[in-house]
Amino acid sequence: MKAVLATDLSAASEATIENETCLECLGRIGIEEIHLVTVVPSNVHAGMPGIDFEKRRRKSIRKYERVIETAGFNVEVHVVRGTPHRRIRGIAETIGASLTVVGSRGKSPLENRVIGSTARNLARTTETPLIVNRIEREADEPSVLRQHLFQRILYATDFSENAREAFETFSYLRHATQEATLVHVETPKDPEPTADDGSDSRLSELAAKLEEWDIETRNEVRQGDPADEILAVEDAVDPTTILVGSRGHSRLRRLLLGSVSEDLVARANGNVMLVPPA
User: Fold this and answer.
1) 64-122, pLDDT tens digit by residue?
2) Looking at residue 171, what DSSP letter applies?
3) 61 and 111: one domain?
């Protein structure tokens, strides 16, 4: 399996790359090859006097390349120019990556209301499963907030086809997962369940599959706003990563309203893994 690890060479990116536990987690789920990607933004002009941005980035990224090689991975480095989320997404699709990893310090409440960072733009557009690795927000020398990416998973489902696809990632995450909390949030728009297909029953079926892999599970059925309730469960059980399917929306809806998955990327305390539609 291949993974793209995106970096802007900031202290937050360095925290993701140099965290041995995070790299070990990637190895456990079957990642063997890591493509280290850094993007020189389009608005940084190559002709600016006395500055060769590509050369400087290649020099800076070498230490990260050595860290990843020392951890036992094959490494390929990409220093490219363009819009960061588009180039990262394009490289992931081109190489057939199974996973994209990007660090994020999160956003202030005001910033959450506007078109956001590379992580949020990737959340909107990625066609590859995406991990947003949460980094300390205020620290000068930040570290990752949850070191074990897949040890304790909070899986949120609306029982859609996309949610089912997100659940299927347990087929490889299970090699690094010890505990899972399965959450469904009922809303007023949900149809009335029959006795055979109630939320508790459907979560129990999913839990039984995980228990076959010796993953300790618990179920939560809640009522209310999906993002709010999922984040309330996160506060209660302290998972290392929230796993959720990511549905596409129209361009207007993406820009103005967002989605549950985008809310989680913006507001979660820990890591978020998004699985896009097939």
Assistant:
1) 888 888 888 999 999 888 888 889 999 999 999 999 998 776 544 434 433 347 887 88
2) H
3) yes
Q: Which CATH number do you get for residue 241?
A: 3.40.50.620
Percent of the chain exceeding pLDDT 90 equals 38
Which residue type occupies 109? P
DSSP letters spanning 69-127: HHTT-EEEEEEEEE-HHHHHHHHHHHHT-SEEEEEE----TTGGGSS--HHHHHHHH-S
Task: Identify whether the C-beta of residue 222 lies closer than 8 Å to the C-beta of residue 261.
Answer: no
Q: How far is CA 185 from CA 156, 206, 276, in A?
A: 8, 15, 20
Domain boundary among 108, 134, 160: 134
> Would you mind telling me the total number of residues written for the chain in this entry?
278
Amino acid occupying residue 105: R
Q: Which of 65, 8, 61, 80 is nearest to 34 (CA)?
A: 65
173 and 75 within one domain: no
At 166, which amino acid appears?
A
Domain region containing 23: 2-134
Q: What tens digit of pLDDT does each residue of 235-264 get?
A: 999 999 999 998 644 444 444 445 788 888
| Last residue in a domain, options 89, 107, 134 | 134
Tell me how far apart the terminal alpha carbons of the chain are, to the nearest angstrom.
18
Residue 191 predicted with pLDDT over 80: no
Give residue-wise pLDDT tens across range 19-67: 667 788 889 999 999 999 888 777 655 555 445 566 667 777 888 888 8
Three-state DSSP state, 4: strand
225 belongs to a structural domain: yes
How many helices and strands in the chain, by DSSP H and E?
A: 11, 10
Contact by Cβ (8 Å): 180, 216: yes
Rounded Cα gap, residues 82 and 183, in angstroms: 38
> Residues 60, 9: contact at Cβ < 8 Å?
yes
